[in-house]
Design brief:
Pseudouridine synthase; 3 domains; 19 strands
């Protein structure tokens, strides 16, 4: 027997400006409660310390989370020189100190070494799981946490300001999986001192930006009202970079029933090779995420994630 979800069918993206002190899971729970949504998730964890852009997927938008998580991200952070902490941020215990304060020239000279693809050791206190248990849970339990370097991409790393000898403010543009706390820790070591993240704010996740985000406080003040729902962005917002494949009503219905359909290669092929992934649409509305395979003179379109949204002319399929 299928489990009946509690809550309403609410579909779309809510771009939250997460406050400090709230976990990403706590933020999702708060948004789910405010919208009385049956299903919710987020795209890209933010530490409780951090503020800024946290895209929250409601309903069918949860099927598109991977496309947002894979998007580029941008951050602003404050690096506090002179103290290393076990969490690599202000919430941890001091593990080392240094009287060295780097000059502007030393900082600028070090930054290029972090650009491009680099190997990065995640913080010991991170959400990375081993045998199903997060690293931070193991660290808090006193276990020895083995940290394995991982490949990440840094697109830009700039010194924005130096409010005092103890502080420097940076902007970073990076790819998926980058830990800003690790970046701050490693930069401090490279310039001959130690340091940790004091403040951290995420500015963008893919095409979602802080300019379009709403605070939890402002959203809560709107209650369960049309004004609150006006802040939801369509499910397909996360798929703007995915090629669209226009379908007939009959083929859309088949896709929504999990069936593959054939389309003429000449009508939909872009370039010399068919695109492997696309968003099947009907009247401009999303039907399903599909894989496209060559099949003689046709293309075979297979649904991978059906999006159960209201579509004119297409009946709902359970």
């Amino acid at each position: 027997m299928a489990r009946i979800r509690k809550g309403d069918k609410v579909d779309g993206w809510l771009i939250l400006d997460k406050p400090a002190g709230l976990s990403s899971a706590g933020a999702v729970a708060a948004i789910k409660r405010l919208f009385n949504a049956a299903k919710a998730g987020h795209a890209g964890t933010l530490d409780p310390l951090a503020t800024g852009v946290l895209p929250i997927a409601l309903g069918e938008a949860t099927k598109t989370v991977a496309f947002v998580q894979d998007g580029a991200k941008a951050y602003r952070f404050t690096l506090r020189w002179g103290e290393a902490r076990d969490t690599d941020d202000t919430e941890g215990e001091v593990t080392a100190t240094s009287d060295v304060r780097p000059t502007t020239a030393a900082i600028q000279a070090a930054l290029p070494a972090f650009l491009g693809e680099i190997d990065q050791c995640p913080p010991v206190y991170s959400a990375l799981k081993r045998d199903g248990k997060p690293a931070y849970a193991r660290a808090r339990a006193g276990e020895t946490v083995e940290v394995v370097p991982r490949r990440v991409r840094i697109d830009a790393f700039e010194l924005e300001s130096q409010p005092s000898p103890d502080l420097a403010v940076f902007r970073v543009a990076c790819g998926k999986g980058t830990y800003i706390r690790s970046l701050a820790r490693d930069l401090a070591v490279m310039v001959g001192t130690v340091g940790h993240v004091g403040e951290l704010r995420r500015l963008t996740v893919g095409r979602f930006t802080a300019d379009t985000a709403i605070s939890l406080e402002n959203l809560a003040s709107l209650g369960h009202s049309p004004a609150a729902f006006s802040h939801l962005q369509p499910v397909e917002t996360a798929l703007d970079d995915i090629p669209a494949l226009a379908m007939t009503e009959a083929d859309s219905l088949r896709l929504r029933q999990g069936q593959a359909v054939r389309v003429r290669r000449a009508a939909h092929e872009q370039g010399s090779e068919p695109l492997p992934v696309a968003l099947a649409t009907l009247h401009g509305r999303p039907v399903a995420l599909v894989q496209i395979e060559p099949d003689a003179d046709d293309l075979l379109v297979r649904p991978t994630r059906v999006l159960n949204l209201d579509l004119k002319g297409v009946p709902d399929v359970d």
